[in-house]
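From the pipeline queue, job 12 of 40. The input is one protein chain; the requested action is below.

Action: predict structure.
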Amino acid sequence: MIANLVPKLYGVLALLFITSLDGSDARVIVRMGRDGVLEAVGPEQRPSAIAASCSAGVVVPNPAANSGLVRDCEALVKMIRRLSVVGLNWNADTAIADWVGVSLGDVSPHSRVRGLSLSGYGMIGVFPDAVTQLTELRSLDLSGNYLSGSIPSGLGDIKNLKSLYLQSNSLIGPIPSELGNLLELQELDLSDNNLAGPIPWKELGGLPSLRILRLSSIGLTGSIPSELGNFANLEVLNLWDNNLTGSILSELGNLANLEVLNLRRNTLTGSIPPELGNLANLEVLNLRRNTLTGSIPSELGNLANLEVLNLSNNTLTGSIPSELGNLANLEVLNLSDNTLTGSIPPELGNLANLEVLDLGGVRGLSGCMPLLQASVIGRRHLPPSCGQ
């Protein structure tokens, strides 16, 4: 057989076209191994005969009584037909309830597809619009694949969708404003794509149930909008590794349920708003590698549940607040590469759970390092301990 050795590459996967001596063609998905050798992953899976089987009584038992599940089956087949994928058992001899990645709501005659989870299956192709025909979905996870094209606006019609995970693909274009129609949505992750255009903050701000919002590494520009203060139930806000400018809004201090706030690797300016000290449930505050100025607010000492505080690689001035010694659960404190001055507060010796302390690059500090109750692993560039 003669192989076309110029495959269209998508990351570490490739689609290899093979022509046999009789002139027939086959398509095989291959992966670049660690030794640089292409290895076959499996035949390209493009179900074509399954569609007719959705109503034959095997894939969907008792199809006459469950036309909704037959439609779901046909939508899944239409979806996968346009993609290159391996490792699925979506065939005419397997009940849809046993299809890899497919979850049904129940086993009643009126069951529907409620979950689709195909994360990391190496799917290659344009994002399939047929997904939008799965109108009873509660969760959709197509993350960690090689999907291209834009996010279809029709996803906004899946009214009961609670989680949407599309991160780590090659999606382009804008975030559809129609996602603002998903009033049941609790988790949204579009990170690590090539999205562009304005973010529909106003529409997303109207999602009353949203708990997790991850929009990291997607090329976000502009300032942090005030609409973010409307996410009353938000627990995780990740906007790191974008091109955000402007200041950190004080409205973020209204997010009473917030547990993770990660804004690292942007170009944010201005001071750290003291209102962040109101976030009683906050466990992670990461503002690393921005261009923040001003002093560290003493109000951060009110964050009783804080475990990670990373303010490194900014231009913060002033002294280290003694109130940081109140953070009884703190495990990581990184204030490195700032222009802080003054003595190191002895109250830092109260941080019994501290595991990493980094003051590297902070040359304006004076005095000795308080004796720490815990054995700190990451003692980078610290002055001698007091009493030595």
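Job complete. The longest helix spans residues 67-81.
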